[in-house]
Amino acid sequence: MDIAIIGASGYAGGDLMRLITLHPHTDLTCATSRKLDGTPVSLDQPHLKGFVDITYTNPDVNDIDADVVFLAVPHTVAMQYAGSLHERGIKTVDLSADYRLPQGIYEEIYGVTHTAYFDAPYGLPELHRDAIKKASFIANPGCFPTGAILAAAPVADLAQTIIYDSKTGVSGAGDTVSETTHYPNVADNINPYKWTAHRHLSEMQLEISRLESRASVHFTPHLVPVTRGILTTAHILTERPVTKDEIQMRYRHMYRDEPFIRLQTPKLASVRGTNFCDIAFEVEDGGRRIVAVSVIDNLMKGAAGQAVQNMNIICGFDETEGLLFPAAAP
Amino acid sequence: MDIAIIGASGYAGGDLMRLITLHPHTDLTCATSRKLDGTPVSLDQPHLKGFVDITYTNPDVNDIDADVVFLAVPHTVAMQYAGSLHERGIKTVDLSADYRLPQGIYEEIYGVTHTAYFDAPYGLPELHRDAIKKASFIANPGCFPTGAILAAAPVADLAQTIIYDSKTGVSGAGDTVSETTHYPNVADNINPYKWTAHRHLSEMQLEISRLESRASVHFTPHLVPVTRGILTTAHILTERPVTKDEIQMRYRHMYRDEPFIRLQTPKLASVRGTNFCDIAFEVEDGGRRIVAVSVIDNLMKGAAGQAVQNMNIICGFDETEGLLFPAAAP
Amino acid sequence: MDIAIIGASGYAGGDLMRLITLHPHTDLTCATSRKLDGTPVSLDQPHLKGFVDITYTNPDVNDIDADVVFLAVPHTVAMQYAGSLHERGIKTVDLSADYRLPQGIYEEIYGVTHTAYFDAPYGLPELHRDAIKKASFIANPGCFPTGAILAAAPVADLAQTIIYDSKTGVSGAGDTVSETTHYPNVADNINPYKWTAHRHLSEMQLEISRLESRASVHFTPHLVPVTRGILTTAHILTERPVTKDEIQMRYRHMYRDEPFIRLQTPKLASVRGTNFCDIAFEVEDGGRRIVAVSVIDNLMKGAAGQAVQNMNIICGFDETEGLLFPAAAP
Amino acid sequence: MDIAIIGASGYAGGDLMRLITLHPHTDLTCATSRKLDGTPVSLDQPHLKGFVDITYTNPDVNDIDADVVFLAVPHTVAMQYAGSLHERGIKTVDLSADYRLPQGIYEEIYGVTHTAYFDAPYGLPELHRDAIKKASFIANPGCFPTGAILAAAPVADLAQTIIYDSKTGVSGAGDTVSETTHYPNVADNINPYKWTAHRHLSEMQLEISRLESRASVHFTPHLVPVTRGILTTAHILTERPVTKDEIQMRYRHMYRDEPFIRLQTPKLASVRGTNFCDIAFEVEDGGRRIVAVSVIDNLMKGAAGQAVQNMNIICGFDETEGLLFPAAAP
């Protein structure tokens, strides 16, 4: 199958290209970049030398032809491509935020008018596999929501309050330089940001509410001196005292057959470069607080990996095709 | 004044020696180490070469003579020294946990029998300055409790629930090697530990309760790839809706005259190597959650710096003597 | 083919297990560890959960049965296994130093008596592919020599002096904790060690001399705050002035058909987790100094990856089988 | 004495301000910044809150009035200020490259015309103390040359070839964001740059030649994932075999009375935030190579610290005034 990646020169684009070269049924035929139009991909991303030998292009949206398209562009840019792709029935996984929320919420949170809205399933296969299977356009979840929702999903209906305290690596900020990503500002530091109002909070609230939960959901992200990975600590206050055993049963039950979720001590090194989400939890004495912790690679299960997982589902491949490899640890 | 440091070869000991060399009224006459008895200090801690020219010794407790003694040894070891020093009326600042808690709580939390218990003020000058002034033996607070308590103190009586999510540098684990501190296990990683039951939680609960608070207090620490520094994110659920203005007034009021507390964006680099605690807060929309963040250098305001601050108070020096210098940032 | 890994619990062992799970023709049937005998591999190395489901064992050497054995144990331990494996004709790749040097040099450099010496080809395929093909026991090169020799090989016969200044990640020190690898001693630091007398120097000198070079070879390694990777800066003083063009021709010619050598700007991120060695060079004005720089992943092309490459050769597989995947960058 | 810092908002400017607050005889009266004109210094550099309470200004050069001026601006900008200051006899320490080299060499290396040239002593007190004492305008050395020259000076006349392989922290690149300093490009990486032609090489060559040396001098810098500090490995090939004893005598003799040079194992942590340069060496078997290693803080002995040291000399203060404090290690 021919694959096109729109916005291939960013970090998520780079990991998509890496995954496409590892996938047995796909062929990368188009990698677009506005700023690098005409540059060989492997000059820009030398780790792909020997694997990707095409050149960045910058085609008109209607000239993009492929069996599957990945939109790895920022929000508001994705919607400029989505309409045409959707109409032409081209299978698409959108890594931006443009189709993750109902239109009204989206417009309020992102402060823009949506010019090409339609419904698309939220591409978290662990919660929405059936809806994804039937669709051809998937809204790939945000990196923070992926780890946060998976950490609390098995106990969401027990929760009164969920406070997500997330720690993210710097690659989440993309490959564009800024004060925020200037090495001396990051190294030996921990930077909380958007302490109470990060845009990803809406995705978390929406998904948690869909799990029959009445919990109030809060979220504070922190930038940490790590390149890849998000560790989310979910502080969950429960409506009634719980026991470790019943909580364990819930996690095991929900994730029993999930190929990318492993219930074990969460370490970033265990998931780096892979599509896994490792989760563990503890119950505080008295049973009124659960601390659940998840780790993901923000560029993989938090972006490119989950996008390929969604592609596998909508294309009828085995869901794990091209994604089942362990991390290189340490 | 002559100063003795018991347990000088550790990280807190090293910073105490650094501070004593900077202090105009003190002279380091004794630095003890069991394992390095006979070794010149500057061979062990080369950054002190040219400043500390004495040799580690290992004297009997009753032979320790000084105007002020710092106990920079682990809990249970400190109590072996404390009795003699206390009886002989030697001014002492104990950096261990041995005198921070009422005896019963201490013995339960630390799982040991206290063999030399007496009351000592909790050496957090911002809350207990008057008690410290009258004492000669001070229980220097734990590193986590220092940052955590200061972050929430101004609003403790408004809180229903306080969840401390702390991120600490590796020097907090001391200079003893372990799996936990093995570089490949720390770098590019975030490690939560003692998710619900860290011993420092008791200090936090006790101090918060002393602030006329009925809040339930929780604490989850994380090891981050940073050498020095603790950033504590205090997620505070309030009993009633609050406004940003009233909260701001409370922080300003409580810390108005505090020489080591600065209300500004918390960055580890701003406090590294210094005795400052920088604090800021945000109020979540609706006023039911306050996110307060504090940063300290765990070896300074979290250990050696606060110990010297306490020494200044009990010796009648200006409280800031030898401690008023800015960080070298970045 | 059945694979046994002796000493599987270390970092090189971990990467060997990862590679065996990725290889289409191999099956891991035995992973030994003295200290973890009886422990499931995936409890010790959680990144392998779902991929390796066997348990560490500690069999007698004569009971080890497999088509290929990897010796991932320290020097002097490898020779305890090698004799039996060699006699029984079991294909073996030895990652230790025990068979890399002629017996006399080995005994002098390592200060021990070799109790089971025999000749084995030096497993650097780029230089000794033919000899490796004919052998069944291969001495896998050291991590530093691999990067160093490959950096200078094309110009070794032009060199008067080669000074290797290498920068290595901490995983090269293994998974055993020590002062050297204690996080606060590594982070924000650069530590030269064995400034003039690292044991790997002998391998470099021997291999460079085999390239018809009369150069004197020197080597100073540095530990840097990186987990994986070695960057070697080869400062090459030439016997006569050279031009950039002739040097470029030499590099291109020698490495034209090498599947794991790429002539491009060396970045650790481009080779991390992979078997690639990326090399570039510059000629100093006047043509009397060449600066050649190579990067490898010390656990891959510097250990496990090259070992699998050697296994492929001695087993008659395609040399790149199971090893052709790009790095996850950044 | 009143101090003005031109270009105070950069990293060197920040450290100059820190040092001025620690100095007993100086008062910061002017801190200029073009882009931050009107901003309180402590808003921009929060670590200085409570120590520096002035606001950045942007005065005309002729309106700058102070007893001492520090020029912490880029090369070519410094010369726009130097003429006026020099004519008006205002004591000045220039941290840029504009007055470090003879005019002809400067213009060739930097590719610009010097519009306000005059002779100024090279401000390396260990080599040029007498010349500095008599001057009022000092050319503060580059960060790399400082560490490199001090490492080899005692044996320069014995050297045939000196190859400097330097490893520098990222703060040396300044506070301006770029691809080079983007966290994911630096972390877990080692980046050689200007492999054979860094501009600082000229300073090294000039100073080494002034030490009666005929050595050819080469220099390759590397960016390492460290914020502050330069470690320089000097690979020195000698004209004749040397012994460890004679070399030791030379280092001890030359640096016997130097207040900021310590002959001990070089660790970045030992000098971080301070004006010290720690140096050690080894002689290779056979005596034909010396490996000398120096560490400095690039912003201190490599910039602001040395500038204050020079200020002390030209103002007649004790040379160590305000600079004698130990590092906070680890």
Automatic annotation (TrEMBL), chains A, B, C, D:
<dbReference type="GO" id="GO:0070401">
    <property type="term" value="F:NADP+ binding"/>
</dbReference>
<feature type="domain" description="Semialdehyde dehydrogenase NAD-binding">
    <location>
        <begin position="2"/>
        <end position="135"/>
    </location>
</feature>
<dbReference type="InterPro" id="IPR058924">
    <property type="entry name" value="AGPR_dimerisation_dom"/>
</dbReference>
<dbReference type="InterPro" id="IPR050085">
    <property type="entry name" value="AGPR"/>
</dbReference>
<keyword id="KW-0028">Amino-acid biosynthesis</keyword>
<dbReference type="GO" id="GO:0005737">
    <property type="term" value="C:cytoplasm"/>
</dbReference>
<dbReference type="InterPro" id="IPR000706">
    <property type="entry name" value="AGPR_type-1"/>
</dbReference>
<keyword id="KW-0963">Cytoplasm</keyword>
<comment type="similarity">
    <text>Belongs to the NAGSA dehydrogenase family. Type 1 subfamily.</text>
</comment>
<comment type="function">
    <text>Catalyzes the NADPH-dependent reduction of N-acetyl-5-glutamyl phosphate to yield N-acetyl-L-glutamate 5-semialdehyde.</text>
</comment>
<dbReference type="InterPro" id="IPR023013">
    <property type="entry name" value="AGPR_AS"/>
</dbReference>
<dbReference type="Pfam" id="PF22698">
    <property type="entry name" value="Semialdhyde_dhC_1"/>
</dbReference>
<dbReference type="GO" id="GO:0051287">
    <property type="term" value="F:NAD binding"/>
</dbReference>
<keyword id="KW-0055">Arginine biosynthesis</keyword>
<comment type="pathway">
    <text>Amino-acid biosynthesis; L-arginine biosynthesis; N(2)-acetyl-L-ornithine from L-glutamate: step 3/4.</text>
</comment>
<dbReference type="Pfam" id="PF01118">
    <property type="entry name" value="Semialdhyde_dh"/>
</dbReference>
<keyword id="KW-0560">Oxidoreductase</keyword>
<dbReference type="InterPro" id="IPR036291">
    <property type="entry name" value="NAD(P)-bd_dom_sf"/>
</dbReference>
<keyword id="KW-0521">NADP</keyword>
<protein>
    <recommendedName>
        <fullName>N-acetyl-gamma-glutamyl-phosphate reductase</fullName>
        <ecNumber>1.2.1.38</ecNumber>
    </recommendedName>
</protein>
<feature type="active site">
    <location>
        <position position="143"/>
    </location>
</feature>
<dbReference type="GO" id="GO:0006526">
    <property type="term" value="P:L-arginine biosynthetic process"/>
</dbReference>
<dbReference type="GO" id="GO:0003942">
    <property type="term" value="F:N-acetyl-gamma-glutamyl-phosphate reductase activity"/>
</dbReference>
<dbReference type="InterPro" id="IPR000534">
    <property type="entry name" value="Semialdehyde_DH_NAD-bd"/>
</dbReference>
